[in-house]
Amino acid sequence: MEYAVLAFFCGLSAAVIGKLKGSSFVLWFMVGLVLPVLGTLAAVFYRSERNEPRRQCPECGNVVALYDQVCMRCGRDLEWPEAVPG
Ligand SMILES: [Zn+2]
């Protein structure tokens, strides 16, 4: 029972940290639940996806990685970006 409580709070802390970093709350809750302490540490050291340069597809508005050359949603060829935003 104590382990379950510990796992729950580890999951919760990992979820909160993951959420703060712009990732999925539920995903990190699962990670923290399955891997207590380790999951929380993983969330702490997880590199935020918000730091990745991104841009929008001019065709469908899908957000893709800056260096993707094809939109994953509509298949439009994306031109090489002239300027890196932000
Ligand atoms: Zn698109």
Q: What do you see in this structure?
A:
The chain is built from three helices and two strands. It has helices at 2-20, 25-34, 38-45; strands at residues 54-56, 63-65. The chain is mainly alpha-helical and 86 residues long. The protein has a two-stranded antiparallel ribbon. Helix content is 43%, strand content 7%. Helix 1 packs antiparallel against helix 2 (25-34), helix 1 packs parallel to helix 3 (38-45) and helix 2 runs antiparallel to helix 3 (38-45). The structure holds zinc ion.
**Which geometry do the CA atoms define?**
elongated
Low-confidence stretches: none
State the helical fraction: 40-55%
Adjacency order of strands in the biggest sheet? 1-2
Rounded average pLDDT: 85
**Ions, cofactors and other bound molecules:** zinc ion
Total helix count? Answer: 3
Radius of gyration: 18 Å
What structural keywords apply?
two-stranded antiparallel ribbon; single chain; elongated; 2 strands; mainly alpha; 86 residues; 7% strand; binds zinc ion
Record the SSE blueprint.
Blueprint: H1 2-20, H2 25-34, H3 38-45, E1 54-56, E2 63-65
Antiparallel strand pairs: 1-2
Helix pairs in contact: 1-2, 1-3, 2-3
Zinc ion binds at residues 57, 59-60, 62, 71, 73-74, 76.
Quickly describe the structure.
By secondary structure, the protein is mostly helical. The chain is built from 3 helices and 2 strands, in the order αααββ. The protein is elongated.
